[in-house]
Design a protein that fits this description.
It comes from Mumia flava. The chain is built from nine helices and twelve strands. It is an alpha+beta fold and 372 residues long.
């Protein structure tokens, strides 16, 4: 069955969408800036079977619970984990893609709350499953933006488009340079050869859980909106370096400094990635973390400890990834030093009585699609 051939009655098909790691460019996707994520080999799988009664029943292997709701669901109708599914159904309908009804079974090995976009993986996995079931032909970028709308307007998390674009457009062996300012955004695949060159990208899941629907993320959005108006800009990421001189408030000045320098770091990181200059790429990662910690103030003690320990144990670079306030850090390290780095991080967390972190290696993988 092709992606736009309607499923037969009773047919069960299986689809999947990956989590993502953002290599650099944090908190720029809602400010019109460039970001550089990869899709990873941690995925949400969605089994789907058509029904024609206008109902959606979804069972989660993560919670081992089921939820049922109508295809005419509206924001506020469904709460908890199932709102990511209901939001996707709602967003598709808002765009004129009404679902007849479906039974869905969802499972995932994308860690929840780890800053690896488990929510976008659910939304995109459900979207491609429903599109395949109904026989719709949806463009990957269009699908990503519909899933972003689900997260923004149904779930209530004011995220940018990076997570969903990474989940939909990922390419094995490539990072994605996403320019978020155009409408629609543009996505360019950039070869990422660190595995071939003997390096590994290690995710350090600190187990410090975060939620982008809570107050601090929204506060950063409000601060950057204030800056955009203050500087009379369409998108804040286009602010020139001397724009900080026009801002008196020290907190807003620091937020702007992160946006300006992080935008520059993404451009430099693309060049380093393309030339396979891993030392330079690592330095940019570490500089990004310092900016997120000191200027944007979205790090956490667990993230800072993970980064510091990784750098002390041979990493070329390390940084938090995702929205922050918990979640995961990433480190670029010689593949032969992965085990030693992992042991050092676990020991460092134990010394200060933090919850033991989980570590695993990731590499760039393909985006959402049918797997069975």
């Amino acid at each position: 069955m092709s992606a736009h051939e309607k499923a037969a009655d009773g047919e069960v098909t299986t689809w999947a969408a990956p989590g993502r790691v953002n290599l650099i460019g944090e908190h720029l996707d809602y400010l019109g800036g460039p970001v550089l994520p990869i899709a990873i080999d941690r995925r949400t799988t969605v089994k789907v079977r058509r029904r024609d009664d206008g109902r959606v029943r979804v069972w989660s292997g993560i919670t081992e619970k089921s939820v049922e709701f109508g295809v005419d669901t509206a924001p506020g109708d469904v709460q908890g984990w199932a709102r990511y599914v209901a939001g996707t159904v709602w967003s598709l309908a808002q765009a004129g893609h009404r679902v007849s009804g479906a039974d869905l079974v969802i499972d995932s090995d994308v860690p929840l709350g780890a800053g690896l976009s488990s929510s976008a993986a659910i939304e995109c996995g459900v979207a491609v499953a429903l599109a395949g079931m109904e026989g719709w032909s949806l463009d990957p970028i269009e699908t990503a933006l519909l899933c972003q709308r689900a997260e923004n307007d149904y779930v209530g998390a004011p995220t940018g488009s990076m997570d969903q674009l990474a989940a939909m457009c990922g390419q094995s062996g490539h990072a994605l340079l996403i320019e978020t300012a155009p409408t629609p955004p543009t996505v360019e695949a950039v070869p990422a050869h660190w595995v071939a060159d003997g390096y590994a990208l290690v995710v350090i899941d600190t187990q410090a859980r975060h939620s982008l629907a809570d107050g601090e993320y929204g506060k950063r959005r409000a601060q950057t909106e204030e800056l955009t108006g203050l500087l009379d800009l369409e998108v804040l990421a286009t602010a020139p370096p001397d724009a900080v001189l026009k801002v008196d408030d020290p907190v807003l000045k620091a937020r702007l400094r992160h946006v300006i320098t992080e935008t520059q770091r993404v451009r430099s990181a693309v060049r380093a990635l393309s030339s396979r200059d891993w030392a330079q790429f690592g330095q940019l990662m570490s500089a990004s973390h310092a900016s997120l910690r000191d200027d944007y103030e979205v790090s956490a003690p667990e993230l800072d400890l993970a980064v510091e320990t990784a750098l002390e144990n041979g990493a070329l670079g390390a940084r938090m990834t995702g929205g922050g306030f918990g979640g995961s850090a990433i480190a670029l390290v010689d593949a032969e030093r992965v085990e030693a780095l992992t042991e050092a991080v676990v020991a460092a967390f134990a010394r200060v009585e933090f919850t033991e972190p989980r570590t695993f290696v990731v590499a760039p993988e393909d985006g959402a699609g049918r797997i069975g």
